[in-house]
Predict the 3D structure of the following.
Amino acid sequence: MEKLKILFAVVFSVATASAASLGVVQTEGGGVQGRNIPLGFFRSVDVFKGIPFAAKPGTFEKPRPHPGWDGILKATKFAPRCLQLSILQTSSFGSEDCLYLNIWVPHGRQVSSGLPVMIWLYGGGFMAGGSMGPNFLNNYLYSGQEIADKGGVIIVSVGYRVGSLGFLSTGDSLLPGNYGLWDQQAAIAWVHRNIRSFGGDPDNVTLFGESAGGASVSFQTLSPHNKGLFKRAISQSGVAFCPWAMIKNPRKIAEEVAEKVGCPIDDRMVACLKSTNAKNLTMASPGITPGNPDDPLVTKLQLGPVVDGDFLPDQPANLLHNAAEVDYLAGVNDMDGHLFTSADISSLRDKNQETSVEDIKRLLAAYTKGMGSAALEIAFAEYSSNWGSTPSQESIKRAAVDLGTDYLFLVPAQTAIYLHAANAGSGRTYSYRLSEPSLMAGPGKPYYDWIGADHMDDLQFVFGKPFTTPKAYGDRHRDLSDYFIAYWTNFARTGNPNKGNLKVPVTWPAFTTTEQQFLDINAKMNESSIQQDMRQRFVRLWTSTLPSLLSHGAAAAQ
Ligand SMILES: *[C@@H]1O[C@H](CO)[C@@H](O)[C@H](O)[C@H]1NC(C)=O
Ligand SMILES: *[C@@H]1O[C@H](CO)[C@@H](O)[C@H](O)[C@H]1NC(C)=O
Ligand SMILES: *[C@@H]1O[C@H](CO)[C@@H](O)[C@H](O)[C@H]1NC(C)=O
C-alpha cells in the first residue's frame, strides 16, 4: 500500500514536473512571467494576470501605448478594476490605471502554438465590471481556466473604462466619448500584435461578451477600426441595437455631471471636466437607482457608446458592411428581462404578491413613449392576446417578463442577427436562445417554477462553473456547460459551432434571412432544439408595426 502511494506520488510529480509551460514570454513591453497550474497528467494552464496593454489613460483621452518596463514583469495578480461606483453608489473603488489584460494558455504534453484566441469583454451596463468578474466561493466568475483547458483555446479578458471616465460625451469633437470602446480596441490590437508569443494564432481571434459586453462586441464588429484584427464575434444578451446600448443625448448628461463637479456650463466646461479629479467624476456618474413602471430601470442607464464620427462613424444599422467578413454568433436568455422588469415591478418576483394589469400597461407605456397612444393599445393587445377574460397571475407576470425580454434584449438581438446575415460576405451567422430553467426557480426556492434563463444565467455555464464549484450544481448543469464550451470554442476554432475539437449534442444550422433558424439551448437537447422564427409575432410588433405608426405621423398628431 505504502509502495503504491509512493509510486503514485512519483508518477504524478513526473507528470506535473514535465508539464509544458511557456516560462517567461517576451511581449512588446518586455518580459512577463505568469504561473503554471498543473491540471492532471500532461495537462496544464499558464495564467498571466495583469499585463498592461496600454499606459494609464489621461482623463477623456484615447488609450496610448504602454512605455514598457525593464526586467521581467510578474504577471500573477489581477490589476484593479477601472474606477467605478460601488454597489450602493455612495463611494467609488478601482483605479484610473486599469488598462490590463489576463491570459489563460492551455498546454498538453508540448507547449502550445497556433491556438485559437477568445477575448472576453465583461458586462455591467457600461457603468461597472472587471476583467476577472465577481469572486464567489474563492473563484472568479470570468476565470478562463475551464474554457481554455476543455476547448483548447487561449482566453484573454480585458479591462476597459466605465462610467463617466469611460463614456462621458458632449456629443461633439471637444469630448467625443467612447473611451471604454477605444480601450477594448487597444486590447484587441495588442492581442493581435503579441499573442503569437503566447502560443496563439493572431489570425484566429474571436471576441465574446455578455450584456454591455455583448453590445461592446457588436460595436467592435461595426467599427471601421478593427480591420483584420479579429475573425469572429459572440454577443450574449446584448447587441448595439439594444435600447440601452447607445446614448442619444449625451450632452445633457455631460452637463449634469459638470454641474455636480462644479464646472461651468459654457465654453469652459470641457477644460474644467478634463482637469477634475477622476474620483469626483466617477462619483458624479448618473447612478442606477431602482425603477418603477413609469420610469423603468433602463432609462437610468445614461452613460454608454455614442455616434462619435470616429469609432462609430454612423448609426449601427449603417455600419454592417464593416462586419461582413466576421462570423457572428448571437442570442439571448429566454427570460433576460426578468431581472429588469422585477426591478421595475417589485411584485413580479414575490410569490405572495399580485401584479396588476395596470402595472403592465404603465411599463408598456414607458417602453412605447414617443410612439403615440395607439402604440400602447396595439402592443398591449399583443401581450394580452392569450389572457382570456380573467387572466391568471401567471399570465400577467409572464407577460411582464416577456415584455422586458423582448424590448430590452430579444428583438434587438433578432435585428442584429438579421442585419448581419443580410449584409454578410463570407461571414456566417448563428442565432440561439438559452431556455434552461433558473437555478433559483421551483418549489422552496425564491422564483416561480416557470422562470427560465434570467439575465446573466449563461455566464456560469460558459465559464464552466458547474465543474469548478461542482457542489452548487447538478449533472444537467455540467452537461449544459459542456455544450456551451463545445459550441463556443468550436466556433472560435473554425467559424462553425459544430466543427472543432469537441462533440456537440445537436448540429446547429446557420441562420439565413429566409429560414431564420436558431438553436434552443438547454440541458436536454435533441433535434427539436432546432427552431425557426424566434418570437416572430413580437419581433414584427417592435420592428415593423410600432415604427410604422411613427412614420405615419401618429406620434406627431399627439
Ligand atoms: C484557425 O485555426 C484552425 C484550427 O487550428 C485552422 O484550421 C485555421 O486555418 C486557422 N485560421 C483561420 C484564419 O481560420
Ligand atoms: C472632490 O469632491 C470633494 C467633495 O465634493 C471636494 O471637497 C474636492 O475638492 C474635490 N476634489 C477635486 C480635486 O476636485
Ligand atoms: C426532445 O426533447 C423534448 C424535451 O425534453 C421532448 O419533449 C421531445 O419528445 C424530444 N424529441 C425527440 C424527437 O426526441
User: Anything to note?
Assistant: The pocket of 2-acetamido-2-deoxy-beta-D-glucopyranose (ligand 1) is lined by residues 114, 116, 201, 203-204, 231, 493 (CB under 6 Å). The chain has 16 helices and 18 strands.
